[in-house]
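Entry 14. Structure prediction run on the chain below.
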Amino acid sequence: LMQVATLAASTWRLERDPFGKLVLSQPDGAVHEGVVPVRAFPVQSPQDGIALVSTDGKEVAFLEERTALKVLNLASGKVRTLLPEGKNYSYADGDQDFTWSPDSKWLLLAFDPPGLGGIREVGLIDAEGTGKLINLTRSGFDDGHPRFSADGSTIFWATDREGTRNLNQDSATV
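Output returned:
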């Protein structure tokens, strides 16, 4: 993997244009605008879950053992843990959702906070692995599928608003 990644990184460039779209430049001068990042199963261990290349093409975020969110730096080959096992668990392929910020400095993800019985929240964590997970929703509702806007200034997600929190503390019991 390292030789392929190093070779690939030295022969092509992946950048964002002023509108936030990915542009792939190949060694022969061919330019492809509007490239879409692909979620893929790691070649070495497809049973472990999905992997996603960073928007700058320098790193790969992946789930190890279907639980821990980790990042592989393609140039150095070093792996760092962003979210240790116990915060998430993938029961089926595609049930974990994470995405890179346009500047490749953050990962946005849906995660399982303790005590909510499988209800997911949306979190943000720095890609260096030096910060704590920031719970953005703190709602008690089932939130997921988080995404960044193309310029990275806005975060949005889906919610079902059928959570465990009582919105009206003064409501009468019927």
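The chain is about 5% helix and 35% strand.
Filed with the rest of this week's runs.
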